[in-house]
What we know:
Blueprint: H1 3-16, H2 20-43, H3 53-66, H4 75-96, E1 108-110, H5 113-116, E2 122-124, H6 125-138, H7 140-151, H8 156-163, H9 167-190
Antiparallel strand pairs: 1-2
Helix pairs in contact: 1-2, 2-3, 3-4, 4-7, 4-8, 6-7, 6-9, 7-8, 7-9, 8-9
Amino acid sequence: MTARERTVTELLRAWSGGDQAALDALVPTVEAELRRLARIYMSRERQEHTLQATALVNEVYARLICDADIRWNDRAHFYGICARLMRRVLVDHARARGYQKRGGQAQRVTLDERALAAPAINTDVIALDGALEALERVDERKVRVIEMRYFGGLSVEQTAAALGVSADTVKRDWRIAKLWLLKFLDGDQSR
């Protein structure tokens, strides 16, 4: 663990313990990384998307602060939760914009190899959320792997640390979850 990772972990634990000064010190420490992750994710969205990376990060912060009773384990756990929140914000935004689950003006997202070693497919964010909800009923850990890697931009190793499993388990879950999602989305879109 690097000194920066230790600092983030220490600040997270202090914040969990009720230290508001730790939150004030944490925000600038993690802000650049969250903005980088949000920019990467938003670069996959359609160009006329009304939500910007900064707004996505701000909404994640707002939701984190509202849920102040989280007990942070470490930096990877924090980014994993942020990944889940980014997913929720984007789905909520799509629903608020009135997009339907299939076709039309739906937002396009890509699970692609360049982004996180996934095969390239296009689907709307609401359909992806529905697929993740269906997968969660079968295997919650695989959904956490997708959230952390795809939405949160975490590496295999960071995801493994956050979930308390081996890197090989994350790789296997990642492969299986991608195949499951491709099959589900293909079937969902053809109905």
